[in-house]
Amino acid sequence: MEQISILEGRQKQIFEKKKGVPQADIACDTSSLSGSVSQRACVFCGSRVVLYPVADAIHLVHGPIGCAAYTWDIRGAVSSGPELHRLSFSTDLQEMDVIYGGEKKLYHSLIELIEQYKPKAAFIYSTCIVGLIGDDIDAVCKKVAKETGIPVLPVHSEGFKGTKKDGYKAACHALMKLIGTGSTEEISKYSINILGEFNLAGEAWIIRKYYEKMGIEVVATLTGDGRIDAVRRAHGATLNVVQCSGSMTWLAKEMEEKYGIPYIRVSYFGIEDMSKSLYDVAKYFPDRPDIMEAAKQVVSEEVKTLYPSLQKFKKALTGKKAAIYVGGAFKTFSLIKALRSIGMSVVLAGSQTGDKNDYARLKEMCDEGTVIVDDSNPVELSKFILEKEADLLIGGVKERPIAFKLGIGFCDHNHERKIPLAGFEGMYNFALEVYQSVMSPVWQFAPRKGGTL
Ligand code: SF4
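Structure tokens predicted for Nitrogenase iron-molybdenum cofactor biosynthesis protein NifE:
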């Protein structure tokens, strides 16, 4: 049994909050350390997760089949209509294409797909190999767009050229080309776009319902249950409301600069942040006090239903400890508050794409002794989970085996999940899932590992 050590070169991305000890800023926004087996996805995957929920577009991965397989049906993002997004198309580049170039293959694939599926637009993702062989995907997209009359948008997301965040930006670039091309007639002055909400298990519908009850028009949701025509008229909204800030702040800033639409950051996880999201939007329209009144009404009705059941979970979970490792740091803030509301503390908090401001806020929010990590790996996560004796890990599909191997509970809070965790009803689902996993009798058959390996 020995202590797990930290890889040389990783120390600056790990921080433990200690009283009275002067502590440097956490290093972040940097490429993953070679050989560290980062939990973070590549640039291509970053762009794929952002654009995936646009359900009436063709998503064609220009690259070897592995890239498409890796991101096939990557989110639990549901659609109220077409489901083209759930098909993963690939040009399946082979050795001969690498030698002679894949442009012809891309062109023919696009023509065939557009003819067969009649999409509203097509997104073409560049992968590592395409970056290496230098295919001119812009030229092919332009040619196909001219011939077919639909937008054909290149997404420059070669996997190796940065971090997952660069993929978010590549996706936003593609969206920016669509925004501003539709009519804004008949859009209300009291309108918003919901940015960074991906309709996992129908979450965008839950959030939309709250705003609509307040009398707010939702012009477009980017990209949950997304439609090309809605994206095209998004520049007609009065306010951008950004949830997943890591993926969509860049787009919000661009829209502010180009169309003068201001943006606010919100979170739909937990009672506190969900309520604040409604109030913050209502505050933006001070000439309509009825919007604020309606927001208060929504919050009071929802909390009245939710509160008693949360008390039941709190009774069982008080004193239990959680580790959080998710994509964006903004979600971590809400999770800390949500866990506290059901009696749990957080001993490890980390993200794949947090920036300096996010980590500064995280340091402020966390309790003494909490470990904060940027762009972590399975060995580090295991080490801190063991040392801090966490009872639960909150993460995504790649973190699930870590929790189960260590004999602790797990809650999937990533984009693959099939249960809505946003909104007030999402808070109930979250508390239920945490309770069921932490208190499960299965742990007597797979006992928790000790403080060392
Ligand atoms: S783009 Fe590159 S890093 Fe990403 S899945 Fe494809 S080969 Fe792997």
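Residues 169 and 250 are 7 Å apart (CA to CA).
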